[in-house]
Design goal:
By secondary structure, this protein is an alpha+beta fold. It is built from 25 helices and seven strands. 54% of the residues lie in helices and 6% in strands. A five-stranded mixed β-sheet has the order 3-4-5-7-6, sandwiched between helices.
């Protein structure tokens, strides 16, 4: 019989998983082998007759679970990127088993006692930090609870894991169901010929005999709303978007969301916290839930004030009251009329291959000296996936970057970065990372032309990839993006600054047919127009953020009977209940917080943006796109992962604590 490919490290370059050898039937046996292996390794640590030491306890723990790490890193990217029915069935089975296994490790009192007995004095700084972080993991997991408390905690963890998987799968299903089918091209006035061809291709791929299919991106705002002249088509598309996951007669996840929020509140109380929000924020860089609210409150008031002013202006432009499905259309008109910027008309200059090679990669070359060699000899997990080997300026290898750029029915919405292999000096590994996007697939033989938002997403997700690739730590636990959730978005947001950097923009923004550069002055116009619409953008983001916190500030024992009424009340109480500015995510498709690890953490984007905006200002004040400044950012911050306190790393980079003023200016809040 063939050997399960997860039982040993891959022999491919950088231990790239051998996707050609992996079969769906390999996952469950590999998980079971991984559980058994790690439990045996832990039993050996506990049974060791020698006194607990860093080497025989903490280092042994850090090296344990190799099979489980390999299969987990592959499987959960596959579940998100190519979640076929068999894969979904495995995910449903394995999610509660993983929760059970984590409890078996972190609620093990004997293992915890050995961790406590390890002497920290005399250890190197990173090793001492590893001991401390392991101890924190045990206490946060509930190792100090009595037997009854631990039993209930295990039940809650299993339930929440299963419900999270169900939520994620149903949101993908709901998004596919809600895609808007349009029979007549006249209803899509405003679409280019390329747009129509893409929509027609999507309709055929989804099983329609004819017509056009407008697939949904995960956030509320749909790109097509900016160009569609038919107001009724816009209304239907917006209704499809906001109704996902909560539609009568369709896939409905509202009860799941309410149940998860209630169970999380109970778990938080069991662990000694007033709410899930308080428990979730405790290990982050934010000092407390109160500190998060203290930051958000004045920003919310200013953002809503700006959004209301924008709404008045849009109504004057439109000649009628503005509904949510009108906003993007008339906002684009203001941008055209007052700033000379038509984002939709720029798409022919934003061709995927050029954005990637001549923009994303080019900026990384200029800043960090990287080069990218596509490895057609290495296979990804799907025919869409491409593989590049990444090299430093001195010719040394830095790892592998995989790109999976197009949408498909088996891929969940949104965009994300995952690691297949994490960098570790202990294990002698370089990083192998993947970016997943959801760019509509063009017809065969045609180029993929991106919206400006999709260009932003390309640069953003590659910022995460760089954070993983540049990691230079000893222990896997501290590698790359294994940092607090409210810090992880910071490097990715910084990487967005190069989108409009004149040298970078001129290099990638070439007309896909003629090769002509963007019309002269476009970059200045885009920069000038960047403040327009910040009231809307900040308010829709804060709507989602404050909704997230409301769900996770529930008192233990609270059962929400009507999730939509709760949502409406929460938005009203927070002062962000603007009918024309719905939250970026509503409960029915808020995958981040119910299935993406961001429970009570969606605030992270704007919390990280303080560091991001300050870093952008630093680059602009210190020479911009230069190797010297790129290397400084890489060496003081990006390479360090969680081997040091993240805010300490920022201080090392900037020479001071972060200044919030650049964020306020960027958001038009001064």
């Amino acid at each position: 019989m063939r050997e399960n490919p997860f039982l040993a490290p891959s022999v491919l370059p950088h231990q790239l998983p051998d996707f050609a050898a992996i079969e769906t039937g390999d996952y469950l046996p590999a998980f079971e082998a991984g559980f058994a292996q790690q439990l045996a390794e832990i039993a050996a640590i506990i049974a060791n007759p020698e006194p607990a030491s860093f080497g025989n306890t903490v280092l042994a723990m850090e090296r344990s679970g190799a099979i489980l790490t390999r299969v987990t890193n592959v499987f959960f990217n596959i579940a998100g990127a190519d979640g076929t029915v068999p894969v979904q069935e495995i995910e449903q089975r394995i999610a509660p088993r993983l929760a059970e296994h984590a409890d078996a490790v972190l609620l093990n009192a004997d293992l915890y006692q050995r961790m406590l007995a390890v002497q920290v004095d005399g250890l190197a700084a990173e090793s001492a930090r590893l001991v401390v972080e392991y101890r924190k993991s045990f206490t946060r997991a509930g190792v100090g609870l009595d037997a009854a408390g631990q039993e209930r905690l295990r039940e809650l963890n299993g339930q929440l894991s299963a419900l999270s998987t169900e939520f994620s799968q149903k949101v993908t299903q709901a998004g596919n169901e809600a895609a808007l089918h349009v029979a007549d091209a006249t209803e899509l006035d405003g679409f280019t010929d390329d747009d129509l061809a893409t929509a027609a291709s999507a309709a055929l791929a989804a099983g329609h005999a004819s017509g056009f299919l407008l697939t949904l991106v995960l956030p509320t705002a749909q790109p097509a709303l900016e160009v569609l002249t038919n107001r009724e088509t816009r209304r239907r598309l917006h209704a499809a978007s906001v109704g996902r996951g909560s539609a009568a007669g369709g896939t409905n996840v509202l009860e799941l969301a309410a149940t998860m929020a209630s169970l999380r509140a109970e778990k938080a109380a069991l662990l000694g916290f007033a709410s899930e929000a308080e428990r979730s924020i405790e290990p982050q860089t934010a000092p407390s839930l109160e500190a998060v609210h203290a930051m958000l409150s004045p920003i919310t008031a200013a953002a809503v004030r700006n959004a209301r002013a924008e709404e008045v202006k849009l109504a004057a432009t439109a000649g009628h009251a503005i509904e949510a499905w009108d906003w993007a259309f008339y906002s684009a008109q203001v941008r055209r009329d007052e700033y000379g910027v038509d984002l939709a008309a720029l798409r022919p200059w934003f061709e995927l291959e050029s954005v990637l090679a001549n923009g994303v990669f080019y900026a990384a070359t200029k800043l960090y000296g990287l080069s990218f060699i596509e490895r057609s000899d290495l296979a990804g997990y799907h025919p869409d996936v491409r593989v590049w080997e990444v090299f430093n300026a001195d010719g040394s290898t830095q790892g592998l970057f995989l790109g999976d750029f197009h949408t498909r029915e088996t891929k969940r919405g949104g965009a994300w970065m995952n690691s297949f292999v994490e960098q570790s000096a202990l294990e002698g590994t370089h990083a192998v990372v993947v970016n997943n996007l959801n760019i509509p697939r063009p017809p065969a033989g045609e180029p993929a032309l991106l919206t400006f938002d999709e260009v932003v997403t390309c640069f953003h997700e590659f910022g995460h990839a760089l954070h993983g690739l540049f990691s230079d730590v000893r222990y896997p636990r501290f590698s790359g993006t294994n940092v607090p959730r409210d810090f992880v978005e910071y490097p990715s947001q910084v990487n967005e600054m190069w989108i409009l950097w004149p040298e970078v923009l001129a290099n990638y923004a070439r007309h896909h047919v003629t090769g002509e550069p963007l019309p002269a002055g476009t970059d200045e116009k885009l920069a000038a127009a960047s403040l327009w619409g910040q009231g809307f953008a900040t308010t829709e983001y804060l709507g989602a953020t404050l909704l997230d916190l409301a769900w996770h500030e529930l008192a233990p024992g609270t059962v929400v009977q009507d999730p939509l009424a709760f949502e409406a009340a929460a938005l009203a109480a927070a002062g962000v209940d603007l009918a024309a500015v719905p939250p970026r995510y509503r409960t029915g498709y808020f995958n981040h917080i119910y299935a993406g690890g961001y429970a009570a953490g969606y605030y992270s984007y704007i919390w990280s943006e303080v560091l991001d905006a300050d870093t952008v200002a630093w680059f602009k004040a210190n020479g911009g796109l230069t190797r010297a400044k790129g290397e400084h950012f890489r060496n003081t911050l990006l390479r360090r992962g969680f081997s040091v306190d993240p805010l300490e790393a920022f201080h090392d980079f900037a020479g001071r604590d972060a200044d919030p003023a650049p964020l306020l200016a960027r958001r038009g809040l001064v």
